[in-house]
Predict the structure of DUF3109 family protein.
Amino acid sequence: MFQLGKTIVSEEIIENDFVCNLNACKGACCVDGNAGAPVEDDETTILADIYETVKPFLRPEGIAAIEEQGTYIKGEDGEWETPLVNGSECAYVTFSKNGTAKCAIEEAYNQGAINWKKPVSCHLYPVRVREYTQLTAVNYHRWEICDAACSLGQELQVPIYKFVKEALIRKFGLDWYEQLEQVAKEHLRQ
């Protein structure tokens, strides 16, 4: 672990490679698991504000789940998260013809309907951020459903921190990311 400003960062995001391989996993991270995607406090307002615009991009099951539970919910850990459809996939998930999970929020963003890509936790994945009183932890979340992404990342030689560059800049800023790049160069020289 190393410290960058008010963050503690795991070396794993430098040492491990990762590139999403949707052909292999079919977006399983949006479907598997026992909770919705983490949502930051300021994102709760955004989810509520964009719902009517995103609604046409959603599946009927997603609309029903959101209208029953809300655009975000309080998880068992006391944190905000996206609602689920019948305790399974994220309510904001849609599926392509080949069964690959896609994000309706991101689809609305890609089509210019909204100017917000998706929750930052989704954008950052497989990096997970945990806020503490004094510091923020930045860690790699290993999940066997992403084994194909690890293999593709190794094949293409793309470390995790480079794969999620845009999301890390979105979360922590360009200066922070440039400091991370410098630390990564020094770390890999050792």
Summary: The CA atoms of residues 72 and 82 lie 5 Å apart.
